[in-house]
Amino acid sequence: MAKAFFRLQKFLRRTQFLLFFLTAAYLMAGSLLLLQRTRLVLQQGSRGASANQALPDGIAGVGILDSRLLQNSRAGPRLLVGMDAMQEPALDQRHSPRWLVSRNSELRQLRRRWFHRFISDQEPMQTVGFKAMKPVDEHTGTYMGCFSDDSRERTLKGAVFYDLRKMTVSHCQEACAERAYAYAGLAYGAECYCGNKLPVTASKPEECNSECKGEKGSVCGGVNRLSVYRVEELRAGARRRRNVIYRGCFRAPENLTDTFPASLIQPNLTVEMCSEFCSKKEFPLAVIRGQECYCGYPTGRFSLHDSADGLLCTGMHNASGTAEGKYCLVYQTPVQDTRCTDRKFLTTKSKVFVALSSFPGAGNTWARHLIEHATGYYTGSYYFDGALYNKGFKGEKDHWRSRRTICVKTHESGKTEIEMFDSAILLIRNPYKSLMAEFNRKYAGHLGYATDRNWKSKDWPDFVNSYASWWASHVLDWLKYGKRLLIIHYEDLKQSLIPKLREMVEFLNMTVTEDRLLCVENNRDGNFKRSGAKQKDFEPFTQEMKDLINRYILTVDEALRGRNFTGLPREYVPR
């Protein structure tokens, strides 16, 4: 017995020593590997620095940019030159035609990591459809039942909100109550719909079986099913967002009763009375001619494209209106135009892989909103942005190479990244506006504004010096490596939305109806428009910054014209 015990003790000692030895060896190997990688990085850095110093005029042969060189306005566009620079005889030699080459992979990887890090930091701060509403432990609305819902014909036709992570019954009720809707409905555990009318018949209660994403044990509808609540009145002092927007004075169509589905004749008619009537009927437009109120949508017969002089609509509240009743006042009600809000993934994989490419801050999210609502299909993304996903951009979570989306958002440039796509819509925006928009997003999220302290810190000049060259190189890379391009200028899209959007839809090989495009125009802003333009009491761009940016503008303008594209809009060029 003693021998057996001694052998067991000896074996355990050997095993303990062996485990200790293996652990020590593992730690030493890891330390050596870390030291080797650190040394390699330092060597590469020193070689890069010496290579840059050896090149004339601040030109980096491997594409690594020194921020100190960027501060020298004379270096300007030359900093974008690489060893395999593209020859372009159409460009003026004053603006360095040989710098039409991609940013090096190191910079692209750094930016990509920055995007992911920033997105992950911002995601918990974002709410969807509502403004920082705290969850209510117990919802107070009256449960009306489970109702069927169809994306082509919504049961509740008012506002639509999403919170694919934190949706609760209380969130939805408060969002609808703030907009003075009578009913709040939840579907798929994460979608919220508001409205003023319910169908006559309900579905079976057990068909509403999806748990709320942010509230375990609570039911938030189901597949094509709505859990509907009658909304309680808001607490005293709570703010209603029952905004009525004046759209303008327009020539009235020849037959108003045929053009508009609902109407009301009311003595002493007011804007509030007409808007309330149309809101209850769930129409986005309220049209007033004299004592007549009409409700409807923008259509081909009444497109709201040709507004008249506002003086023609003065004194409208008489028996027949001015100018013999030929003109009418038009207001936008709080009701959302839902004729174009249905979206889905492609049923079969797309044969053409299309990019929606832009520099950050150039309106890519807005363009995605327009494309999705015009085509009825989701757009994808090279990145994953939880805030956008929660806002209803469901393609964010789909793999960017799945080909189930109509196009894929990207801010990437460079030969490898560009040649993965068969074609691309290249969205370009004034660099002054793009830089400011991206700086706001970096420090305050999608909807916020950077503080004056941010603008006056050293972060702003450093940001301009590094990102201004990226604005230029992004366009130039896509011009060089892109296989089939459609150039869209943000300013043109904003000014002539329907013609430019139709051009984009045709490029995507899709067809849409005129009414759907008018619906998109009616919902043009989406959920990511910053409220107003926050004016600063100082000029953020120094003269040195302007000199740098203006040279990039001229170079990009010449590159576009050299490839038979329309040059940059006039407002870009030197300010």
TrEMBL record:
GO molecular function: sulfotransferase activity
Name of the protein: WSCD1 protein
Family recorded in the similarity comment: Belongs to the WSCD family.
Source organism (scientific name): Zapornia atra
Pfam families referenced in this protein's UniProt entry, alphabetically: Sulfotransfer_1, WSC
Gene3D superfamilies membership: P-loop containing nucleotide triphosphate hydrolases (3.40.50.300)
Record keywords: Repeat
Domain WSC: 140-232, 243-340
SUPFAM superfamilies tied to this protein: P-loop containing nucleoside triphosphate hydrolases
The UniProt record lists the keyword Repeat: yes
Stretch forming the signal peptide: none
Stretches that traverse the bilayer: none
